[in-house]
Amino acid sequence: MITASHAARLSPPGPDWRALWREAVTDPRELLELVGLGHLGDRLPKDDAGFAVRVPRGFVARMRPGDANDPLLLQALPQLAELDVVQGFGTDAVGDMAARSAQGVLHKYDGRALLIASGSCAINCRYCFRRHFPYGDEMAAAGQWRKALEHVRQDASISELILSGGDPLSLATSKLEELTRGLAEIPHVTRLRIHTRLPVVLPERIDDAFVRWLADLPLQKVVVLHANHANEFDATVDAACARLRDAGATLLNQSVLLRGINDDADILAALSERLFAAGVLPYYLHQLDRVQGAAHFEVDDARALSLVEAVRHRLPGYLVPKLVREVGGEPSKRPV
User: Fold this and answer.
1) Whole-model pTM?
2) Less Cβ around it within 10 Å: N or C end of the chain?
3) 112-121, 199-208, 310-319: which has the minimum mean pLDDT?
């Protein structure tokens, strides 16, 4: 049952997150018009470079009007550079397909299994490492999670279940409840980790029903957010983070190092400070997964290391994220 502390954080009546989801911007020309850059429409790639545009309007409102280099805009706006064919960049950047163990289950690391809970996201980030993933065939939520849960049930080494996607919080809370009812019958799973961008880009998703579900789970709970720049935070995001903490979740953040967006020591330090102000600990700073269409975001390792060293000199150690790269087939993330 939700505690008095949780009750104090219940969200006030407001727009339903599903309505806000449906109202997202899906036309890049409209996105440019909304931020006062409609004259740049001729710079857009044809057919969104094969990866549909989706941006919640609340996230658009945090972009700087008239700034073609706004760090939030650049994460969501298609670029002609996405059409470039660059050696070393492919459609399965981190070896997902080789790690498939059951429908919608990726089993890469000891003790942990990852469920592809959904193929939908509230925002389609242009550097997404799963922009080419075959979600239609790989959905753990299909059939009431039956095949995914059976795989987890049969492997007693799995103590942590990771929900990813897409974004698992794109699912209705009732669908998440369906999963955790099944997990209650698997005693060796003691921790649930949720990887999500929704509390940042669509904070209204952390509504009363979701908070109650999360608070009532008899598991250790970790929510890993994804924010790349301090400007992604506002009071609505702070409130969503507070509700998640009140529901008993440990909050971490992982970022991607992106050229032209956050490849600057001041920007990275400001992000860490802003995360901590919202009750979130920096966790990972990922080197870009080399997915086709994202090469223009890549920062070389020497530059990345110098940036992290500069951040280390100005912040306490607990605010310095680990610089890592994911390499398909390896037993863990590789430190850079």
Assistant:
1) 0.94
2) N
3) 112-121
